[in-house]
Amino acid sequence: MTSNARPSRQSGKIVQLRKGASLEMVRLACPDSAQASLISESFGLPVIDSEGICDLHRKIIVDTAESLNEGLGDRAMQIHLQRIVGSYVGSAHGAGQFYSRAVSEARDATAKSANDTRDEDLDGPAGFDSNAQRKREFAADMGIQAHALRCAAEGVVTAYEEIVGEAWKPFERQVETSGQSVDRKAAELQMAALG
Question: Where is this region: Disordered (predicted)?
């Protein structure tokens, strides 16, 4: 019995890029100084020293680079700072996304509480906040946190540019996926040999 089975001819590798968070993504997701001030004022939260956070984190990275200057070459310094800045930006972006979800939940709960026919959304017992109020307050807390992390990220990005001499960009790692695994190819060849 003859078999006409042929191994498939797929491309050996498919290269995809895994993109990291950029500072622009952080700015879109996290409140700016004006919005953070409005949140603080509306919810009675502490006002964040945005410029102070930004300046302090810029200084931390500059001081770190100066202390490592003797031991690292230019390329090693750039790689090291790329990783540090990437972690700050990634953290701020994650906080911004979490803030966005908290705002959506607060909006939904507030809209539901405005409906007088829903018993489960009524205000809590005297002295306790409603579910919608708790969600709004939680979103406000998350907004202040996201803003603080945005300021830190902006500070380290500024420091990176000062030290390296070029604008920071997120690292794009190549993720290689083979078209077919070796085990699968071997199994197909073995089955073809068996007829």
Answer: 110-130
Cβ atoms of 123 and 141 within 8 Å: the answer is no
What is the C-alpha separation between 126 and 172, in angstroms, rounded? 53
Give per-residue pLDDT as tens, 125-172.
555 567 888 999 999 999 999 999 999 999 999 999 999 999 988 877
Closest CA to 113 of 136, 90, 97: 136
Cα separation, 29 vs 96, whole angstroms: 5
Cα 193 from Cα 195, distance rounded (Å): 5
DSSP helix/strand/coil, 156: helix
CA distance readout (Å), 132 to 8, 31, 95, 107, 193: 57, 21, 21, 8, 67
Q: Considering the entire predicted model, what is its pTM?
A: 0.73
Rounded Cα distance, 50 and 34, in Å = 10
pLDDT in tens, 111-120: 887 665 555 5
Question: % helix / strand / coil in the chain, to the nearest 5?
Answer: 65, 5, 30
Two structure tokens written together for 185: 């190819």
Dihedral (Cα; 73, 163, 19, 142), 10-degree rounding: 130
What is the DSSP-derived secondary structure letter of residue 14? E
Neighbours of 2 (CB within 10 A): 5
